[in-house]
Predict the structure of ATP-binding cassette, subfamily B.
Amino acid sequence: MPTDLCHYRDRPLALIGRSIARRPVAHGFIVVAVLGAVFCSIGVQYGVKRLVDSLTGGPAGDPWPAYLLLVGFIAGDNLLWRAGGWIASSVFVRVTGDLRSDLFRHLTGHAPAYFADRLPGALTGRITAASNAVYQMETMFAWNVLPPCVATFGAIGFLASVNGTMAACVAAAAGLVMAAMLYGSAAGAPLHGAFADAAAKVDGEMVDVVGNMQLVRTFGAIGREHRRFDGAVADEMRARSRSLRYLETLRTAHALTVVAGTLALLAWAILLWRAGRASPGDVVLVCTLGLAVLSATRDLAVALVDVAQHFARLAEALRLLLSPHEMRDHPQASALVARGARMTFENVAFAYPGGAQVFEGFSLDIAPGQRVGLAGPSGGGKSTLAALAQRMYPLRQGRILIDGHDIAHATEDSLRAAIAFVPQDTALLNRTLMENIRYGRPDASDEEVWAAARAARCGGFIERLPAGLDTIVGDRGVKLSGGQRQRIAIARAFLKNAPLLIFDEATSALDGASEEAIRGAMETLMAGRTVIMIAHRIATLRAFDRILVLQSGRLVEDGAPDQLMARDGLYRRLVRDEIDRLNEKQSAA
Ligand SMILES: Nc1ncnc2c1ncn2[C@@H]1O[C@H](COP(=O)(O)OP(=O)(O)OP(=O)(O)O)[C@@H](O)[C@H]1O
């Protein structure tokens, strides 16, 4: 069974088949129970005919065999449905759970570029929609599609015992009605698909706004957001109404066909009875079975139409979620064993997907244990360089090596283990502080977590929190200050103990006192490791071994801070600008 879900991107039915194949016995039981139950419920009509015939056959007729047959069918009809229901209540739920987990695993394997282009809410909403759609389709198939199909064949079989021609006519009519309904359901797929798209868009908009409530409020944009949302909801309502009106048209056409068919069948049975070619029981059977067949095609039509809608939702979700991973491990990938962590960029060319070229023929060598600061104007490529060093995006050309190992040929896990990254905007999960710090090394003991927290100067504020390390930090860490969040990120890096450290201006949110407090901790953390630090405040880089000044993706200066200060270059201008800004601030204060 392929583990790569991409195979199923345009094959929703195959994906459902895969889920069924994982639990064949339980699914088999459900089908058998449903088939048995439907057979019994048709059999009930036949039992009634036998009873009517034995009761109208005169006092000599023995009604008890017919009675027993009828009771047997009634018991089977009721109990087999429930047996199927019990099994389904666990197996269908598991199928849904498996699918959710599989889709989540696939989603989290995508590279950052994938997430940059899509709304998080729309993605998570699609996982829920896809697993619900599969659940609904399994349920509908078991209770609403399979039964009417079997009922139709069973009823036609019983009808054949009364009149072969009549059975053939009913079979032909039922076949035609079903074919027409199937065709109609398939033809409506684009309408249902449009509704699925519009519904997913509404989900995405909701999550985007709720996740950015502070921004929305700060800019007094609540009214604007309401109007934008109303627009998305109006689109969804229009698409849904179109889809439902189409379904109603199909159902109405079906209802008219059923009325005409029933009238004709009944009249035919009465004529046969008057001609002495059918018993009263036969007329009853024709009435009940004919109606059963025609209403079975109605149930089937309704179910098929619903299934078509769920199918459209599933297909739409799979198309979005199951695109191939952009950054999968190379087939010959091997574990990277970083020792001193020398980092080398060889003739690197890179552009963001759909974006302009950021690097072209870029080369750089960072010696093991060297502390390198990245400086330069905004948009120069500092964050991009840090992202490429972590293999967040594929290169257009060239190689990036750690200790001589091309990172494109390193296993993802070994690469992540070699690098500790402290981002500018510290991401925290809505879990406890303990869990957030331990993210750096899941097997760390409580004592090690505490040691890392103290080393990053987090001890003081954590001890003042009512629940200490067990405090839940809130969505993205909203319950902590920016500086506290950054110190947690540094604690994480302490715990990870990787040979290569990448900081994206980790101290930008710290006030002077906090920065001083943490400087010593960072010194300890950096000792003996290769460090790349993106710094917008150049003062942070004073004690670094080497400064790289990036401008428009080019390395315009490279050297020790003192050397660069001695030159009349961009670095010196940036330092002077910073000093001027600080002086202006101080005189304004
Ligand atoms: N996800 C992205 N998709 C497309 N283009 C991007 C993306 N991220 C950055 N860029 C572009 O790449 C170029 C380099 O950006 P980068 O963020 O690396 O600069 P930077 O030097 O870190 O800037 P800053 O100092 O403002 O953080 C910029 O032109 C930017 O617009």
